[in-house]
Amino acid sequence: AQSVTQPDIHITVSEGASLELRCNYSYGATPYLFWYVQSPGQGLQLLLKYFSGDTLVQGIKGFEAEFKRSQSSFNLRKPSVHWSDAAEYFCAVGEGGRRALTFGSGTRLQVQP
Amino acid sequence: DAGVIQSPRHEVTEMGQEVTLRCKPISGHNSLFWYRQTMMRGLELLIYFNNNVPIDDSGMPEDRFSAKMPNASFSTLKIQPSEPRDSAVYFCASSLADGDNEQFFGPGTRLTVL
User: What is the C-alpha separation between B58 and A98, in angstroms, rounded?
Assistant: First the structure.
C-alpha cells in the first residue's frame, strides 16, 4: 500500500526567507504526486503536480517541487516566503489507475514578520 | 465554473440525530470523493465513486455512515445516528476519471455533534 510521510508537523520561517517542506512516499511504481495548500477554514487548493517528464515542476504562488526517485521524495520549495503563505500544506500520492489519493499528515507553516 | 459545492457549510446537531451532508461535483467530473479531516487523524478518505458507483468504501468508519450518488451531479453522506466523535470537517472532492488524479475540493462542512 502506498503511504506518504511529512516529517515536519510545524515549521516557522521569517518573511522573505526560503522554504522547503519535506515529503517522502512509499510506492512501487512511478507515482502521481501532488502538493495541496489549505488556508484556515478553507478547502484544499492544488499547488502543483507531477506524473511524468521534467522532475522539477512549477506551481502557483511561486512554489516548485522536485521529484527525486532515488530518495522517494517530492519536496516543496519557495525561494522567498510571503506572510500570505501561512497555511497547512499537504503532500499526496496517487496510483494513476486508482483514483483515490493518499495524503500525508500535513505541515503547518507559520510566517514571522 | 462554480467548483465543488457542499452544503451545509456548518452543521451543529445533537448526539443521536441524523445528519446529511451534500455535495455537487464539478460538471463533467465522474469521480467523487468524501474525506474527513480531524486534528487527531488528519485527512482520511471515506469513500469514492466512479461514474456514480461506489468503488472503495473501506474508509467508512462504521455502519452509521452511508453515502449515495444517485446521479452524476449529486452525492450525500449520511450519519445516523450521529455521535460526538463524528465531529470533523467533511470534504467532498471531484476529478476526471481519465485524468491525472488531480482532485478539486469543496469548501467542506464543519460538523459538530453535541
Answer: 14
Return the DSSP state at A1: -
Residue A100 touches partner B, C-beta closer than 8 Å:
yes
Summarize pLDDT for A88-101 with one digit per residue, the tens. Answer: 999 999 876 556 78
Cα–Cα distance, B113 to B49 (Å, whole number): 26
On chain B, the residues whose CB falls within 8 A of the CB of A46 are 102-104
Residue B54 exposed, middle or buried by CB count within 10 Å (0-12, 13-18, 19+): middle
Q: Mean pLDDT over residues B10-35, rounded?
A: 96
Residues A32 and A95: their CA atoms lie apart, in Å, by 6
- Within 8 A of A96 by CB-CB distance, chain B residues are 101
